[in-house]
Amino acid sequence: MRRTILLGLVATCVAFSSPAFSKEQLVLAIGGEPEQGFDPLLGWGQYGSPLFQSTLLTRGRNLTPEAGLATTWTLSEDRLTWILTLRDDARFGDGTPLTAKDVAYTFNAAKQAGGRADLSALNKARAIDNTTVELSLNAPRITFIDQLMTLGIVPDANRENGYREGYGRQPLGSGPYRLVEWQEGEQLIVERNPYFHGPLPAFERLVFVFTGEQATLSAAHAGQLDLAAVPPALATNLPSDMQRIVMESVDNRGILFPMQPATGEQSASGAPIGNDVTADSAIRRAVNLALDRNTLVDVALNGFGRPAFGPADGLPWSLDDEAFTAPDSDRANALLDAAGWERRADGLRYKNDQPARFRLTYPASDTTRQLLAQVSAEMVRPLGIEMQPTGRHWDEIQREALHQDAIVFGFGSHSPQEVYYLFHSQHAGFGFYNSGYYSNATVDSHLEAAQAAVGAEEANRYWQAAQWDGNTGYGFRGDASWAWMVNLAHVYAANTCLDLGELGIAPHGHGWPITANLLEWRWTCD
Amino acid sequence: MSMIQPRIAAAGYISLLLIMLVVLLSSSWWAGHNASQMQFDARLMPPSTSHWLGTDALGRELWSRTLAGLRLSFWVGLSAALLGTLIALTLATLATLSTTLDALVSLLIDTLLSVPHLILLLLLAFALGGGTQAVIIAVALTHWPSLARILRAELFSLRHAPYVAISQALGKSRRFILVHHLLPHLIPQCIVGALLLFPHAILHEAALTFLGVGLDPTQPAIGVLLADAMRYLTGGFWWLGVFPGLGLLLMVLSIDRLAVQLRRAL
Amino acid sequence: MALDVRLINRLASRLIRLALVLLCVAIVTFGLVMLSPIDPVDAYLGPQMAQVSPEQRALIAERWGFDASPAVQFGHWLNQLLSGELGWSHIYNQPVSEVISQRFQRSFILLSSAWLMSLLVGFALGVIAGAKEGSLLDRLISGYAYVTASTPAFWLGMLAVLLFSVYLGWAPTCCAGPVGILNQDVSMLTRLHHLVLPMMTLALLGIATITLHTRARMIALMNSDIALHAFAQGASRSDIAWRHGLRHASLPALTLAFASLGELFGGSILIEQVFAYPGLGQATVEAGLRSDVPLLLGIALFTALFVSVGNLIADSLYPLIDPRMAQEQP
Fold first, then answer.
1. What is the CATH number of domain B62-265?
2. What is the ipTM of this complex?
3. Of A188, A181, A186, A193, which Cα lies nearest the Cα of A207?
4. Which of these, A155, A148, A193, lies nearest to A58 by C-alpha position?
5. Considering only CA atoms, which of B53, B33, B31, B32 is closest in space to residue B42?
6. pLDDT of residue C328
7. Which of B231, B237, B238 is the best residue to mutate to test the A interface, defined by the most A CB atoms within 10 Å of its own CB?
8. 20 to 30 A Cα–Cα from C310, which one of A63, A77, A142, C151?
9. Terminal-residue alpha carbon distance, chain A
């Protein structure tokens, strides 16, 4: 009798245990709630891996393109036409098949939408048949392949359940998960998409909570989270029953300087443009020279990072001799003296009665950026320059500070496309990219040449020339348009039972970079 | 004899509080430089003999920052209290000049009293754009109504006093009566009123700054210190939150007690 | 008969005054918001302002009447207000009326429980302290009340979080419910668990005021002729406290409780911020920080309504207190 019961129990246990699927729901607090909703045409997923939609191609671990929705892809000889063959088993979350028509619609609509960075290179997208798509470009563009890797495919507007206004709140896609409920500002609940064409994800449900830094840490300590993004400065006091996960990244932080003097001009949205102090290159160079980047890594990042001297340190489209000696206050002081910035009795430098004083704005809720701003202000002060660290909400920054304050910004991408957005004058004032209104005709021509290049090697030469070509460039030796500070690693606290597989290299933090290999995640406890 | 003893005790108490106040206010001399000095190798240290109240995330000594914050709160609170008292006195006086003015002033008082203090403060800070001046004005504008009510009641009851009637009979102008009879009588009320307003002003300024719409966050205001401490709360860095608040509590309590003692003496 | 008419008259005049005050509040808040440097179209659009073309901006300005004079704008806004249209909150992407009703529901539990608790506990402590004037108990209670009245509310909240959540782990550190669970699935018990700490902290400050006031009343009573009369008839101290004190001090305590609704709202703003409790107070701060003008105006008016009604009740109760005490003089 007892043996039967025992056997029965064991059998039940065996029947119900399946290690990878023993946990139904995962709770994540990794930030990144998109204001515009989950709409790829408005920018959702622009760093890759949009959860609800699939992309034509995916970025492999070594950053090269791999198959996604598309099984084959070719670029014509004249580099103007892409032909892609789609897989035939892709389905949207409502069971309907994904065809070339949807792909064509997505690309054409994205070009019009204007809420997303640049598809202006696209001329037209056309569905040749159900599984073949032709994308024709206006001019050769080497970074266009990034769009293939990041633009999520939405259903054609002309079909049932197709794309319409409000899509961002009820996104229908062919990705591994579909949306169940979204309480804005609070949480997002998603469940497995039963029609997903890829391998079955290990977790039936995912809950993303959009709590601020402090609430996230509280919830982690209370054992309510399985994965939590942690500001590096607080990464040493994690709850004892969680493991620390560090994901390497090309994410960086730096100070963006408004490049134009304040002439009273305003942007389209009414934000004032220009700053008389930062428009002076001597100031920008001096700030660059005053920053002790190693200390910044120590204090603001707790050591989880390394110094940064450009927007893409270590990547092939960036020069590797960009680093310079800093802090070097002698050189900085000499520069300022030579440019006419005189010290007065109050310790501050003045030029034509203009004090060397400007606001250094950062998003108030971000501890890392606050620390970076405060420490860098302190480092710059002995030079007689006063940077005023000012914390504001992003809304307020956009409304007022975006084009007239120095801002602690962050970028970092797997693609040189970002360099184009950051420094080409065509993108001046567009979204958050070239918000300093940087404009240099030579740099523009290098960037355009890079886009038109035949292969990556040639392109990289031009990307690097834009940084410094011996005469000018956006880097320190040229216009010193930014003061890059640090490259940071992303730190997470994770449940000890959560196995995140092999993590790649993350781009800039918005948009859940850690979910890039979501399909490999496993739960290792029973 | 029993009249003098409590007076001596009160005097002693008052002198103690005044001494503490002087020490606090002079601390910009003997502790001022420390408040913003960052020590990168001594970040987030708990209280010890070398770091009396501990250090914050940038290695700044908490004891000197707290003192600096208390000084700031003192001056901002005082300015707001004085400004508020002035406004209250002016409007209460205006109210006695005619019945229409009285009705208007009463309506204004009732209006301002129906909006919760903090919400009115938020609205004012929003309208004035934040910063030290805005905080002083906002706090003053929020607190004058209650004092004005009291002063107005006083003025109205004084108007019927016998010496006023005599003055009027002697043909003195209204302004003369106001300036020479009524206002001097109000001065003790004003002083007490200002003193009672003072602690509230300090607490409200700290609340505004804590919420992020008050004083400039580059200054070590108590509200700033506490708002910052919130970030590090779950990390167990308790000293960042406990000491600045404790300092504020002690200061407000002392001023409150001082006000009560003074009221008894006057 | 005559009493009823007088009462109705008084009530009517009070209500008229209430309406007048509310109108003034509307004018004042609208005026304040007009003063702010925010472009109303920006405030309306929120984060989308960067993507909207100048033509669209002009359209919005026209539709909402932003290009008219302030007086006209006020009239327009008042009109919309009276028909229930409070505007759109760009922070929460919902109509302002919805935001307020949703969030007020959550705040209401917090506010009402804290209010009740401060009334009951404050009253009890005040009676005890007053009845035993001069004793150790009295000194402890009044000492506690004085100290609490000088304490910054948000600091108290922080201490509570530090002690009860971070160190002892008895209560959650934040929010109205545990993360990751759908709103409707949260059990009442869990909700209460999340409510305890914020509620107690909020109540703590209200208790102090009511305690001190009740204590003063009790002391006055104990030294009054009524007490003397009762003593002469052989009643004990606690007898008097129980029978006369409760009756005489309860009404003033209730009146004070109604009059201090404003302070309660203010306190809840701070407490909700410290505990990340998603109620009306937190929404107010967000609206102020992120320039959500319609929401800020809506909340200001809503709370003013509440506080005015509270003041109205308090004002109506006052005459009940004094004539009663005057009547019972032998």
1. 1.10.3720.10
2. 0.84
3. A188
4. A148
5. B53
6. 38
7. B231
8. C151
9. 28
